[in-house]
């Protein structure tokens, strides 16, 4: 049990993030969920987390904003008695397009949410972890960031950036007893991939295990890294073998 600990999960209201919130709640973590707009999903996830007898609260905050993330971390610190010991940077978006036609705004928004968002959250929680003499950070990357994906130059760049951010943070904060790792999912069934059908034999041919992943496949890897004191700077693929 993780009694007396608080975890912050960005994008913790839906999809992969929701499953991570529920798993951590079952382990006894208090949960602070950061989301940007879907109030109903956030309220539902808070209720389901609370069913484990822990404290859960949802916060509207755009992770791409330095000021909003600073304020939300300060508010979470005020609201939760138990120390913040874990951060899961999971919030992410796609704005796919061919690079020759990609809008500047689509490049900027994906980099701002996916990469700067993770920086912002680490930037504002690092001091708490250092003061507590420990902490665990898990960032969600993607196989798109490891291999590159045609039509996703912005997304692939943001997720490759997450790998560099993870490794630099891991090296910098290791002397303070803080670990930082990444999970790189492949094709996982969520709202983000609702337009991809598994019927496509072309897609299945790229996945050695022959199926899309479930949110539980990714959440298991996140929980493993959050509970592993001697692993840091690792990028754990959860992709059915795509990027091996
Ligand atoms: P999802 O179902 O679309 O959920 C995205 C979550 O991020 C939602 O909770 C959303 O909040 C939140 N969010 C989006 N923009 C935000 C912002 N600016 N500030 C704060 N929160 C924000 O996505 P998912 O499929 O679970 O993906 C989760 C993570 O895994 C992402 O980083 C994604 O890139 C990565 N990933 C997914 C796959 C996949 O196949 N699904 C594969 C590889 C990597 P609202 O509900 O309020 O909109």
Protein topology:
Elements: E1 6-10, H1 15-26, E2 30-35, H2 39-50, E3 56-60, H3 66-79, E4 84-89, H4 104-132, E5 135-140, H5 143-147, H6 153-173, E6 178-185, H7 201-205, H8 215-226, E7 235-238
Parallel strand pairs: 1-2, 1-4, 2-3, 4-5, 5-6, 6-7
Helix pairs in contact: 1-2, 1-8, 3-4, 4-6
Short description:
The protein is an alpha/beta fold.
Provide a descriptive summary of the structure in words:
It is built from eight helices and seven strands; from the N terminus they run βαβαβαβαβααβααβ. The chain is an alpha/beta fold and 244 residues long. The protein is globular. It starts with 5 loop residues before the first strand and ends in a 6-residue tail after the last strand. α3 (66-79) packs parallel to α4 (104-132) and α4 runs parallel beside α6 (153-173). It is 45% helix and 16% strand. The structure holds NADP nicotinamide-adenine-dinucleotide phosphate. NADP nicotinamide-adenine-dinucleotide phosphate binds at residues 10-11, 13-17, 34-38, 41, 62-64, 90-93, 113, 140, 142, 185, 187-188, 190-193.
The helix count comes to 8
Number of strands: 7
By helix and strand content, what is the structural category? alpha/beta
CATH hierarchy, class? Alpha Beta
pLDDT averaged over residues: 96
Radius of gyration: 17 Å
In angstroms, what separates the terminal alpha carbons?
34 Å
What is the percentage of strand-forming residues?
Answer: 15-25%
Here the CATH topology equals Rossmann fold
Overall 3D form: globular
Number of domains: 1
The small molecules bound here are:
NADP nicotinamide-adenine-dinucleotide phosphate
* Main sheet specs: 7 strands, parallel
Order of helices and strands: EHEHEHEHEHHEHHE
């Amino acid at each position: 049990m993780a009694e007396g600990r608080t975890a912050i999960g960005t994008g913790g209201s839906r999809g992969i993030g929701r499953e991570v919130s529920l798993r951590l709640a079952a382990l006894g973590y208090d949960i602070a969920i950061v989301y940007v707009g879907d109030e109903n999903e956030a309220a539902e996830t808070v209720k389901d987390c609370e069913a484990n007898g822990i404290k859960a609260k949802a916060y509207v905050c755009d992770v791409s904003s330095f000021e909003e993330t600073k304020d939300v971390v300060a508010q979470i610190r005020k609201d939760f008695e138990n120390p913040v010991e874990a951060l899961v940077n999971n919030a992410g978006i796609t704005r796919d397009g061919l690079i020759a036609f990609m809008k500047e705004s689509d490049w900027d928004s994906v980099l701002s949410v996916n990469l700067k968002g993770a920086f912002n959250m680490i930037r504002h929680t690092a001091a708490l972890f250092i003061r507590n003499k420990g902490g665990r950070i898990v960032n969600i990357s993607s196989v798109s960031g490891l291999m590159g994906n045609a039509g996703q130059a912005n997304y692939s760049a943001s997720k490759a950036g997450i790998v560099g951010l993870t490794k630099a943070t891991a090296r910098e904060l290791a002397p303070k007893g803080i670990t930082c790792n990444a999970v790189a999912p492949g094709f996982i069934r969520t709202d983000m991939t609702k337009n991809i059908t598994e019927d496509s034999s072309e897609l299945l041919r790229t996945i050695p295990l022959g199926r899309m992943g479930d949110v539980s496949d990714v959440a298991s890897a996140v929980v493993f890294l959050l509970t592993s004191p001697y692993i840091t700077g690792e990028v754990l693929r959860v992709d059915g073998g795509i990027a091996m």
